Amino acid sequence: MSTYTLIIFPTPLDAVCVLQHDTGGWTLTGTPAVHQSGRPGQAFAIPEGTPNSNGARLTISHPTYKDTVDQRAVVLLNDGTIPWPFGPEQSAAFAADDFILQKPNTSLPRLVVQGKVIMQDVK
Amino acid sequence: MSLQRFTVIQNSDFNLYNRWLSGESIDPLLQQRQDVGFNSPRIWTAFNIPLIGRLIPREHPDFYRRVPEFMDYVAGYGMYPEWTAFTGPYGGIFDNQAEMIAHWERLDDALNGCTNLLDLEAINEGDNAPNAGVPLDKLRRPTNKNASHGSAVQDAPPMQPVWDVAGHRPGSSQEWRKVGHNPMADVADVFNVPSWCNETVRRPDNDSSWEHAFDAAASATLLCSGSCFHSPSGKNSTLFIGRELQLAQAWTAGARSVPLEYQAGSYRHRSDLENDQILRAYSRVLSDGRECVVTIRY
Asked: Does B12 have pLDDT greater than 60?
């Protein structure tokens, strides 16, 4: 049985990426892979028989990041029945494959010593 | 530069960096510490000690590189960590003094630019036997950050020369009355640096009194630069539960019960207020005559 390979690029690379298909009856966890371009990412081996152009849910998380991704999208399969890339000439499609978790952007005032006390330098 | 007063409301979280570096989620822990009212985890960096954990820097290739990322992460919870470099014993951790010096300098470098650093502390109880052999005199003094040369055993002066700040250990008899007073009298007034007890009697197993926890922390806010709540769950960085949680809440409530403006007041020992209920009474008086009194109950 052949599979379809879907590669995504999470940051950090060791984030836990889970793809749950709406109609295919499967849930996959991404595994380390390298795209043909040389960029490292994670791959999902989508089973043969999965209905084409159906929805799926992708979640991405990492224990040391506060942010998470929870995104729905259509999974397009290059089975030869539709033009590739994803539409007729002049049409456009948004195929998201780059997911970056945002680290908390918090900066605290520096602590400075003033004689026998500690102060916050709030500028 | 615009300065606001600050007090250290610290808790032992020795194993915190280890848990994060190992990929564990520390969000519930940080959320609890913040909710309870703490602002500074005390973090250890090289140890293999039962009931604390195992963190051997050379076993983690990214140990130093990820320090700034960790600091950013805990900043999201308002935390100012104190990092302690050496906390003996060292068997299987450092093979020689050169490795110790390298650990110190790489930690120092890694913390450059981290605005939420409380201080980088060289050693915990430097004159305690398990710390024999640490080349304290060969450690470079950090620049552009607050640094401590290290604490000493109970009732002893801190490691010298004293750097920017200094941790202290008061004697264990009636320790709760000394948590605020002794860092002031024995360290800050002597060396003219901020000082606080960065390890106190472990609660609840060695002192389960709510009043002692509240009063110790309140007196520390008034008299010195803050205090540290020490507990079993703080050693290995797990959630506070039961009586331990109640005492942690008492600690932060006490620490936050004193307006910080009174740090600038003149010290008074209010022995006139002491009786069979009040073990000690301390105050600071501002130049306009306003006074803040903290009582230490039996």
From this structure: yes
Strands, DSSP E only, in chain B?
3-5, 8-12, 40-44, 47-49, 53-55, 82-86, 119-123, 147-148, 166-167, 195-196, 226-229, 266-269, 278-285, 291-297
- Report ipTM for this prediction: 0.95
pLDDT score at B215: 98
**Cross-chain residue pair A117–B23, CB shorter than 8 Å:** no
**Is there a contact between A122 and B72 if contact means CB atoms under 8 Å apart?**
no
0.95 exceeded by pTM = no
Tokens of B147: 């640094």
Contact A106 B76 (CB under 8 A): yes
Interface test with B, best of A14, A105, A117, A123 (most B CBs within 10 A): A117
CA distance B268 to chain A (A): 17
pLDDT at A89 (0 to 100): 44
Contact between B4 and A119 using a beta-carbon 8 Å cutoff = yes
Q: Omega into B194 within 30° of 0, i.e. cis?
A: no
What would the mean pLDDT of A34-44 be, rounded to a whole number?
86
